[in-house]
Amino acid sequence: MIHINKELEKYIPIANLTAKTFGKNCEVVIHDLSIPQNSVVYAVNNHVTGRKVGQSFDHLVKQVLLSKNFQGDYAANYKTTTEDGREIKSSTSLIRNYKGEVIGAFCINYDLEPVKNMKDFLDEFLYVEQEEVEKEVSPFDNVMDIVDDLIDKIVGNVDIYSLKRKDKIALIKFMDAKGIFLIKGAIEKVALKLNISKVTVYSYLDELKKK
Q1: CA 125 → CA 49, 50, 110, 167, distances in Å?
Q2: Are 161 and 195 in contact (CB under 8 A)?
Q3: How far is residue 47's CA from residue 39's CA, in Å, rounded to a whole number?
Q4: Number of H helices, E strands in the chain
Q5: Helix (H, G, I), strand (E, B) or coil at 86
Q6: How big is the CA angle at 46 (ends 52 and 113), to the nearest 5 degrees?
Q7: What is the mean pLDDT of residues 22-50?
Q8: Which 8-state DSSP code applies to residue 35?
Q9: What is the rounded end-to-end Cα distance, in angstroms, of the chain?
C-alpha cells in the first residue's frame, strides 16, 4: 500500500465530493509527483479509465504541461481515449505545497459515452480541446522546472555509476513513454543526469523504437 503525503491527503475529501456530485461516470485521481513511477496515490470511480493506486501518470506532460491551454497551473477539457475506445473528458490541476513547489496533480476524468445520445443539447458540455504534441517543443514559463524535477525524481538517488546499461535504457524508456523527451533540452538534461552523452541517449531511443 502506498503512503499518502499529508499535504495530498487533504485533497481526498475534495476528490470524493467531486465524484459524488457528478456520479459514477466521473473518476477523480490524485498523483504524488515525488514518485513518478508510482504516482497514483488515490482514485475514486476508477472503473472509468481503470486507474489504480501505484500506477504512473499518462497525460501530464503531453496534454497538460505542453498544452497551449495550460495556464494558472491547470488544463481543462482535453480529450483522452481509453483502451476500449471510449472518449474521456479530462482536466488536470497541479498541486503545490506551502513553498510553492509542485508536489502532485488532481485529475478529473469524465466518461462521455453515456451522454452521447443527448448530444443535441449537451454540445457545450461535451466540447473538448485536443492537442497532439508530436515533436520536441520549447516549454512555457515554469514547465521546464517541473520537468527537471520529474527527471530528478525518476532517476532518483541511485548511484549512476552503478547503473547497468539495461537500467539506463529502462529509465529512458519510461521517460520517453511519458513524453519527457518532447521537451526541448530534456535529452541533454537526462544525459547529464545519467552521466552519458547526448548521442548515447539518442542511440538508446533508436534501439527502443526498433524493438
Answers
A1: 20, 23, 11, 45
A2: yes
A3: 18
A4: 7, 5
A5: coil
A6: 135
A7: 95
A8: S
A9: 33
